[in-house]
Amino acid sequence: MHSTATPPVTATHCPYCALQCGMDLAAGPGGGVEVRERAGFPVNRGALCGKGRTAPAVLSSRVRLTEPLVRDRATGRLAAATWEEALDRIAGELSRTRAAHGADACGVFGGGGLTNEKAYALGKFARVVLGTSQIDYNGRFCMSSAAAAGQRAFGLDRGLPFPLEDIPRTGCVILVGSNLAETMPPALRYLTELRENGGTLIVVDPRRTRTAEHADLHLAPRPGTDLALALGLLHLIVAEGRTDEEFIAERTSGWEEARAAAMAHWPEHVERITGVPVPQLRDAARLFCDAKASMVLTARGPEQQSKGTDTVGAWINLCLATGRAGRPLSGYGCLTGQGNGQGGREHGQKADQLPGYRKLTDPAARAHVAKVWGVDPESLPGPGRSAYELLDALGGDVKSLLLMGSNPVVSAPRAGHVEERLRSLDFLAVADVVLSETAELADVVLPVTQWAEETGTVTNLEGRVLLRRRAVSAPAGVRSDLEVLHGLAARLGHAKGFPAEPEEVFEELRRASAGGPADYSGISYARLAENEGEGLFWPCGSEGGLGGEGEPRGAGDLGGEGGLGGEGGPGCEGDFAHAAPHPGTRRLFLDRFATEDGRARFVPVVHRAAAEEPDAEYPVLLTTGRVLAQYQSGAQTRRVDELNSAAPGPFVELHPRLAARLRIAEGEPVAVVSRRGRAVAPARVTSSIRSDTVFMPFHWPGEGRANSLTHPALDPVSRMPEFKVCAVRLEPLRPS
Ligand SMILES: Nc1nc2c(c(=O)[nH]1)N[C@H]1C(S)=C(S)[C@@H](COP(=O)(O)OP(=O)(O)OC[C@H]3O[C@@H](n4cnc5c(=O)[nH]c(N)nc54)[C@H](O)[C@@H]3O)O[C@H]1N2
Ligand SMILES: Nc1nc2c(c(=O)[nH]1)N[C@H]1C(S)=C(S)[C@@H](COP(=O)(O)OP(=O)(O)OC[C@H]3O[C@@H](n4cnc5c(=O)[nH]c(N)nc54)[C@H](O)[C@@H]3O)O[C@H]1N2
Ligand code: SF4
Ligand SMILES: [Mo]
C-alpha cells in the first residue's frame, strides 16, 4: 500500500451508505490507514458498522485499478494504456457516435454514491458537452418512488424532513420495509431509544428481520401488498373517527377523493390481500393514533415495486389524515440508501432534472441553469429515459455509454438481458475504483480515486450536507472522476467549464442551485469546515444571491418568502434582510408545505396487483434485499476479507414448510427459476420468512445473481423497477 495519511488524523465520512457516519482516519502502522471513532458526530456518535470499519481495505492498490485499460482490437483483451490513450479513445468514440447517429446515441449512467460535485459535473457534461438527453443513474433503482410521492404530496423531496434525533422523541414509528439493523446499524439506536422512552415500534416486513425483532408489533404482509395494507389502516382510522379534521381542513387538499378511495379497502378484504390478520391491523391503527406524535418511515421494501409511488402515497395519506405531518416530531420520511443518495438526486444526473432539484421541463429553470453554464437555454436537451429504459435501449438507438459509479451487471433488474445490452454497445467506457463486473465488459476502463483520496460534499439521508475530506493520497496512476470529465470535455471542445478542483465545482453548483428547491447557495466549503460537527441542512439559501446569478432565495419553485416553513432560528426563514448566513433548514414543513398553496396534497390511490403474481408454473414469491456485511453489487465489499468471511456468498431464504414440501434441506443447492432466468444458491431454512415467499440478497454476480430473476416492470410515475416481487419456481439440486 502506498497510501500515506496527510495530515495525521482527518475527520471524514464513510464511503458507503446514506447515514454517512463520521469517522477519523489516521496513519496506521506500516503506512496503512486506520479508522478511529469520531464520537462528536451526532448521526452515529462514533458507532460504525463492519463495512465502514473495514473501508480502508478497498484503498489498497492490491484490489484497485491503478492504470487505464483499453480493449485491444486485435486480441479483444483489456490491456494497460496511458491516460492520454484512454481519454483520446473515449473522446474519439463519443464523437464518432454523435456524428454518425446524433447526440442522443451517446448515453451516460451515473450513481448515487458520487459526490454532489461529480453528480453535477456529470449532468452538465451530458447536456453541454455531449448534448444528449440520455442520462440517468442508479438512484432510479433506489428511492425514486419515495421521491416521486414526496414531490406529489409535499411539493418537495427531502428523504427525511426532520433529523434522526427526532425519532426517539416521537410516540410511534411505523417502519415499512426497512431492515436498518443490517442496512444502517448505527441508526438502530434511534429505535431502541424510542422504545426506552415509552414509544412503540411497528415493523412491516414479510420477514422477521433483525430489525423486526425490536418491534412491539410486526406485520408480515405478502410482498407487494403494502398499498392495500396502508389503505386498510386508513379505512380503520376513518371508521373509528380518529382523523384530524382540523389539520385536514387547514393544511391539506384532496381529502374527499383520497378518503373515498381508502374506504373501498375493507379490513377483511385487506387481510385476504396482505395476509395480515384484522386484529393486527386494528392494533397498528390504534398504536399509531394513540401516540401524541407519530412517524411513518419507508425504505426499499414498499418502494421497489411497480406501484411504489402510490404505495408511499398511501402511507403519506395516513400521516396527513391523522395530522402526523408538518408538525413537530411527526411526519413521513424515506430512509435513502446510497452514500450520496440524497445529493445525487438533486444536481442533475437524473433524466428529467437540472441542478438544485429543478425540472428540465421548466423554462425558468432552463434559463437559470443555462445562464450559469453560459449556454443557450434552447441548446439544453429535454428529459431522457429512466435507468432501466436506458439500459434496455443500449445497442438500439443508444450506441455508446459512459458509466460512472454503478455496476448494473449485478444490480439491474433482469440483469441477464441488461448484460446482453451492454455487450451489444458499439462502445462502453467505465470509470471505477475496482474492476467491477460491468467494467470487465468495457472498451475503456478508467481507474479513479474514491472517498478518502479526494474531497467532496455528500448529503446524507437527513438532507445534511457534509464535507467528506481527503485523508490519504491515491495510488499512482489514478485520477479523479472530475479530472476524467475535465479531460474528456477539453478533448470535445470545452476547455473551460469542467474544473477538476472539487471546491471550484461546488462554487458553480451553489450558483446553479440558487433559488431552486434544493438550494445550496448559502453553503460553502469554508462554512462546512466551520460546521464540521453538524453539517448544514438544505435548503440553505444565500442572502442577496451569488455574483448576480441567483434569484433571491424563495423566488423560485418554492413560491415566496415564507420559504419552506422550517423551524426558525436566528436569522432563519423569511428574515433575509440582514447579512447573517442562512443557518440551514433542519426541519421542513412546520408552517407550510412546499406546494404552491402551502397545503399538502392527498392523492387518491387504490390497490393493484404486482406485475407478476404466482401461478401454477411459478408458484412462489421472490423478494430481494441486503445482508449486513455486503454492500450493493458487492464490487467494493467482496474485496474485503473480513466481510467475505461474514457473508461469503448468495443464499435462498425459505420457510421450513416450503422446504419440506419441496424436499430441500438446509445448505443444499437450489435453483430458483423465473421467466427471466435462473439462479443457484444454497438454501437457508428459517421460520422468520413467510411460507409463500423466498428471499435472496443481490450482492453477487454469476450463478447466484438474484437479478437474473427479477422483473423489470416499472412504476408509471417514478420508473422504479419491481425488485421486491416476482414469481419463481424452486428446483432442488441434490449434490450428486
Ligand atoms: N449492509 C448493507 N447496507 C446498506 C446497503 C447494502 O447493500 N448493504 N445498501 C444501502 C442502500 S443503497 C439502500 S437503498 C439501503 C436499503 O436498506 P433497506 O431498505 O433496509 O434494505 P433491503 O434489504 O433492500 O429491504 C428492506 C426490507 O424490505 C423487506 N421487503 C421485501 N419485500 C417487501 C415488501 O413487499 N414489503 C415490505 N414492507 N417489505 C419488503 C425485506 O425483507 C427487507 O428486510 O441500504 C443501504 N445500506
Ligand atoms: N434485486 C435487487 N436489486 C437491486 C436492489 C434490491 O434491493 N434488489 N437495490 C437497488 C438499489 S437500492 C441500488 S442503490 C442499486 C445499487 O447498485 P449499483 O449501482 O451497482 O451500486 P454499487 O455496487 O454501489 O456500485 C457502485 C460502483 O461504483 C464504484 N465506485 C465507488 N465509488 C466510486 C467513485 O467515487 N467513482 C466511480 N467512478 N466509481 C465508484 C464501485 O466500485 C462500484 O463498482 O442496486 C439496486 N439493485
Ligand atoms: S452504517 Fe453506513 S455510513 Fe455508517 S459505517 Fe456502516 S456503511 Fe458506513
Ligand atoms: Mo439504494
TrEMBL record:
Annotated GO CC locations: membrane
Record's keyword annotation contains Lipid biosynthesis: no
Top-level taxon: Bacteria
Domain 4Fe-4S Mo/W bis-MGD-type intervals: 7-63
Spans annotated as Disordered: 544-568
Entry's Gene Ontology BP terms: respiratory electron transport chain
Short name of one Pfam family: Molybdopterin
Keyword list, A-Z: 4Fe-4S, Iron, Iron-sulfur, Metal-binding
Any one Gene Ontology molecular-function term assigned to this protein's record: metal ion binding
Biased composition (Gly residues): 556-568
Entry protein name: Molybdopterin oxidoreductase family protein
Organism: Streptomyces alfalfae
Lineage start: Bacteria, Bacillati, Actinomycetota, Actinomycetes, Kitasatosporales
